[in-house]
Design brief:
The complex is a heterodimer. Chain A is α+β, with helices and mostly antiparallel strands. Chain A has 13 helices and 18 strands. About 2% of the residues of chain A have low confidence. Classes of the chains: A alpha+beta, B alpha+beta. At the A-B interface, helix 9, strand 15, strand 16 and strand 17 of A face strand 1, strand 2, strand 3 and strand 4 of B.
């Protein structure tokens, strides 16, 4: 029986590149997938495109493709990636440019477009789920609206012989579903098969998170070779259990525990994982350790796909200013608390609402807010604390005030403050709407180098 | 004892909703998790940061529970002023929860 081998070469835009090269070289792969588009990344990319019409694709595209294309071309490994972000056509031009520079004549590049639905959501007067108002009420704050499209256009591209498929906003698992549908000739209403393929995509899409990344807890869950963590491979037969593994000798581990954690990662109802392709059901998945960094998973299924596509809307939502400063030695925590109080009062005097000011003592209460009340009594005072003040403001000038007030603590605050830093960022918030899938027209452009 | 003795966990987010999985190392401990780690207890533990409901999903086939916490304060990943915008550290806060030692 034919078995397809799919690797995941990136789980986010800034992911390590070396494991992808290792996968392409030693993974005996049919397909190499790069998932590089977090929810907000596409809104950031849309802003980049607004500044430069040739921009707006993944910032690591050139470097990543330069590293993997030669070995993928030599071994006949097809690449599928959403590194097109807000500008898949410009990204495809970069891939073509890289391929020419590497002398890879005959490479077939396909570009999937159609996920950008800004005009559609405004013209259709679609309503934002979170606010209950039409999208157009966002006015000039609206930055992006991208539909999560499914596997179908990617399958068309692969059917035309594409070696590299570049997309924008595609549902993450669909990047993996598409090669499996193409390889096995599944129908787009074969829900159990699509549910099973979605399991493969879900397990692999965060790359190192299923091979021992985001997992190690020394003494409880040890992982060897994390510094050279290998990325995952799925071995998928047409029917039956799928196997998750990694390149022999690479760092990390693939065990039932790593697979269970990733199976539930960012999952709500495990019996109803909604994607554009299928409503997948992971609630009856069972997991068997096949040993030697090989884990077998079976029992995923699926039901009829949703009628509507989810649309991620990005909009400008003010600014966040932040400042940090450290205190150490005896009384560090009380001096840190005094510093935070001083900055809070000065920012309120400057007109920033108390509800928009947030103070942490990093090392004391920044992460587990719920425990901060009892910390001073059940733990010795920390030998150093870092004060962090963050505030949400409507203007960039007001945001800059936050860091300035923290820096002013040097000469206007408690004794012994050091290492102050300040930053300002524009907030790009995300909201959701849904669009009937029939209204979203995808297209595929082909080019041969 | 703490949950960390018998289970592991991972958290992730989707906007203003965070999920935390809780997985028994040994499937025989799953009933203890199911008995002691209720949605109400998890809601109480994270009351300082989560205002909405906590829903618990049960996955006996892999010895796991999945908690979905909605209404995370601060407006979710993009708007929050919290240091850990994604709630990625919350899995460890759950593993610190105490359950009885002698209950098999």
């Amino acid at each position: 029986m034919k078995t397809i081998r799919i690797g995941c070469g990136a789980g986010f835009s800034g992911d390590r590149i070396e494991p992808a090269v290792e996968l392409a070289t030693h993974g005996d792969l049919d397909y190499l997938i790069f998932e590089c588009l977090a929810e907000r990344t596409i809104a950031l990319a849309q802003q980049a495109k607004a500044r430069d019409p040739r921009g707006g694709y993944d910032p690591w595209l050139r470097e990543r493709l330069t590293a993997v294309l030669p070995v993928c071309a030599a071994r006949g490994i097809s690449i599928v990636t959403n590194m097109g972000a807000a500008n898949p056509l410009a990204a495809a031009d970069v891939v073509a440019d890289v391929a020419r520079a590497l002398g890879l004549a005959g490479l077939r590049i396909a570009t999937v477009t159609g996920d950008d639905v800004v005009d559609l959501v405004i013209a259709s007067r679609l309503v934002v789920v979170e606010s209950g108002e039409p999208v157009e009420a966002l006015g000039d704050r609206l930055v992006s609206a991208n539909a999560y499209i499914g596997a179908e256009p990617i399958v068309s591209a692969l059917a035309q012989g594409a070696n590299v498929v570049i997309t924008g906003r595609v549902a993450d698992p669909s990047l993996f579903v598409a090669p499996l549908v193409h390889a096995f000739g599944w129908r787009f209403d074969d829900w159990p098969a699509l549910g099973r393929a979605t399991l493969v995509g879900h397990l692999l899409e965060c790359a190192g998170q299923v091979t021992g990344g985001y997992f190690a807890d020394p003494g409880c869950k040890d992982v060897d070779g994390l510094e050279r963590l290998g990325f995952p491979i799925a071995e998928v037969p047409e029917h039956g259990p799928v196997t998750v593994t990694k390149v022999k000798g690479s760092g990390g581990r693939v065990t039932p525990t790593t697979c269970k954690e990733q199976l539930l990662y960012e999952i709500h109802d495990p019996s109803a994982y909604l994607t554009p392709d299928v409503v997948a059901d992971f609630s009856h998945v069972h997991i068997v350790d096949a040993g030697d960094d090989r884990v077998s998973l079976d029992g995923a299924s699926g039901r009829t796909r949703p009628d509507q596509l989810k649309v991620a809307i990005g909009y400008r939502d003010g600014y966040v200013g932040e400042g940090q400063i450290s205190y150490a030695g005896p009384g560090a925590m009380r001096r840190g608390e005094l510093a935070a109080r001083i900055v809070r009062e000065r920012l309120r005097a400057a007109g920033i609402a108390a509800a928009d000011i947030h103070c942490d003592l990093i090392g004391v209460n920044a992460l587990f807010a719920a425990r901060s009340e009892r910390l001073p009594t059940d733990r010795a005072e920390p030998c150093e604390v870092r004060v962090r003040v963050a505030a949400r403001t409507p203007s960039v000038e007001a945001a800059a005030r936050v860091g300035r007030e923290v820096e002013a603590l040097y000469t206007n605050g408690p004794a012994g403050g050091g290492g102050a830093t300040a930053s300002v960022r524009e907030v790009l918030s995300m909201a959701t709407t849904f669009v009937p899938r029939a209204l979203v027209a995808c297209a595929v452009r082909y080019e041969v180098i | 004892m703490t949950l960390r003795r018998i289970s592991h966990a991972r958290s992730g987010d989707k906007g203003t909703t965070i999920n935390i999985s809780l997985i028994a190392y040994d499937a025989r401990d799953y009933p203890r998790l199911a008995r002691h780690v209720t949605a109400d207890r998890v809601k109480a533990r994270f009351a300082a940061i989560v205002s909405g409901d906590v829903v618990r999903y049960e996955l006996p086939a892999i010895g796991a529970l999945n908690f979905v916490l909605s209404g995370v304060d601060g407006g979710g990943v993009t708007r929050t002023l919290a240091l850990d915008a994604h709630g990625k550290s919350l899995s460890m806060a759950l593993l610190e929860m105490e359950i009885p030692d002698d209950d098999q």
